[in-house]
Design brief:
alpha/beta, Rossmann fold, five-stranded parallel sheet, 8 helices, about 55% helix, binds adenosine-5'-triphosphate, binds the ligand Cc1cn([C@H]2C[C@H](O)[C@@H](COP(=O)(O)O)O2)c(=O)[nH]c1=O
């Protein structure tokens, strides 16, 4: 059961280079314009709090054991939920996060091979609410792109971090796990064909039917 809050929670997801960051700021402005009486909070994972940002530095650079990596991702998420996401949703705000738990299933699960049972346990532990429900985004916008196109886009703009150094096979597994999650929870996900131009994608995002 997914919990309900006065606020509204949107996550942006996709493999590295799929185009999330290109659209997130305009999407925040769009939401602010469409819902002027609501505050819009933009945040990211891993990160979003001072501790989470410190953990991000470690997670994106330091080599570590797979379980350690998953536990640190969820530790950063617990802090993010407690300090930022839950208070904002309780206050009726719109929270827009660059990645959330689907990324752990896709990267630590699909990509690196951590068991889905362990990830389910962590999700229940970190996102569980006193009434037994799970804190989940109301809407997840998944930018879907083949690994080789994402790799070509990334290589034009920045030096790779630990995850971005992974090979195409890894990113294909990450992508497939995202698609599996999207199929399993099709009401929550909106799938974007990220091979389209930014202009076409932006039109699509503007036409999303969002009711708070
Ligand atoms: N639809 C698109 N078509 C072509 N190029 C794009 C498109 N969307 C984004 N790009 C370009 O691809 C590169 C990566 O985009 P962006 O940084 O938005 O990806 P991202 O999904 O946020 O990546 P990461 O998750 O690693 O931060 C940028 O140079 C961006 O300008
Ligand atoms: C939340 C989360 C993230 N990751 C990975 C995915 C990306 O490679 C980086 C974050 O970088 P971005 O440029 O800000 O997208 O972290 C992960 O492996 N697991 C997670 O739960």
């Amino acid at each position: 059961m997914t919990s309900t809050f006065p606020g509204y929670f949107v996550s942006f997801e996709g493999i590295d280079g799929a185009g999330k960051s290109t659209h997130i700021e305009s999407f925040c402005k769009l939401m602010q314009k469409r819902f002027p009486d609501r505050e819009v909070v933009v945040t990211r994972e891993p990160g979003g709090t001072p501790l989470g940002e410190q953990l991000r530095g470690l997670l994106l650079d330091a080599p570590m054991n797979l379980e350690t990596e998953a536990l640190l991702m969820f530790a950063a998420r617990r802090e993010h939920i407690a300090q930022v996401i839950e208070p904002a949703l309780l206050a009726g705000k719109i929270v827009i996060s660059d990645r959330f738990t689907d990324a752990s299933f896709a990267y630590q699960g699909g990509g690196r091979g951590l068991s889905i049972e362990k990830l389910n346990d962590l999700e229940r532990w970190v996102q569980g609410r006193p009434d037994g429900s799970l804190l989940q985004p109301n809407l997840t916008i998944l930018f879907d792109l083949p690994g080789e196109i994402a790799e070509a886009r990334r290589s034009k703009v920045r030096a790779p971090d630990k995850f971005e150094k992974m090979d195409l096979h890894f990113f294909e597994k990450v992508r497939q796990e995202y698609l599996r999650r999207a199929k399993e929870d099709s009401k929550r996900f909106h799938l974007v064909d990220a091979t389209k131009t930014p202009e076409v994608i932006w039109e699509e995002l503007q036409s999303l039917n969002i009711h708070l």
